[in-house]
Amino acid sequence: MSEHMKLKAELDFLTAIERGEVVTQMTLKQRIGVSVGLINALLKRAVGKGYVKVRRAPYKRYAYYLTPQGFSEKSRLVAAYLESSIDFLRQARAQYADIFETSLRQGKGCFALAGAGELAEIAILSTLGQDVKNLIILDPVTERSDVSGVRVVRDLGGHDVDAIVMTDATNPQDSFEHLRRTYPDVSILWPALLRITPDRDELIRAHDEGRAA
Q: Which SUPFAM superfamilies match (predicted)?
């Protein structure tokens, strides 16, 4: 996860709990759009830093409260996120533009963006002025029917694409692995900012074999 996305996750987390509502971690997961594991990590860090206090509620639920230090940290994160957003937008747009320019030179013109979030909007912007023949968004879970006028589909059945371009910022590595298994004959491309490791399974296997030796 990029530093920009970490900032956003921390800011969204503090904003989600600032009113002291009784919520479950699953509720926070749905509000923020990140994994329960990340919610646990954010909560542990926030409590350890003194930003959040926790009170147990019935039915295995908890009430989370921001401390004065927590509200100060939220204000700091707002400023940091806004500054980061400008740099992130420039970086992301340049990297996606490079992906499309390179692909078009290779004769690829039909693309599916994998993920209907913020990065998809940036990727769409990066196609302006380029000779992209067809563009769709692949996202099996979103409720959106389009992003910036680009149609969202649940799968690639009936859609002929030259490449899938990763735009899932929530869990890019797992999404990449899933797409590679699901569409083994389609090229998958991604910007460097997503930090995807294409040979992750091989690295893990080599590590496990090294430990067993």
A: Winged helix' DNA-binding domain
- Tally of structural domains, the chain: 2
Taking the alpha carbons of 164, 33, 36, 154 in that order, is the dihedral positive or negative? negative
pLDDT-derived band at 22, boundaries 50, 70, 90: low
Query: Residue 117 gets which letter from DSSP?
Result: S
151 to 57, 82, 114, 169, 177: CA distances (angstroms): 43, 29, 12, 19, 23
Q: Which residues, in sequence order, are bridge partners of residue 22?
A: 63
The reply to whether 86 falls in a domain is no
Q: What is the Cα–Cα distance from 12 to 179, expressed in whole angstroms?
A: 28
Which residue carries 């019935």 as its tokens? 58
Of 60, 50, 48, 51, residue with least CA distance to 23: 60
User: pLDDT tens-digit profile of 123-172?
Assistant: 999 999 999 999 999 999 998 999 999 999 999 999 999 999 999 987 88
pLDDT for 211 equals 57
pLDDT tens digit sequence for 173-187: 889 999 999 999 999
Strand partners, 130: none
* Position with higher pLDDT, 201 vs 150: 150
Q: What is the dihedral of CA 24, 74, 125, 104, to 10 degrees?
A: -80
Domain that residue 136 falls in: 92-200
Pairing of the two strands 134-138 and 150-153: parallel
Tell me whether residue 45 is in a domain. yes
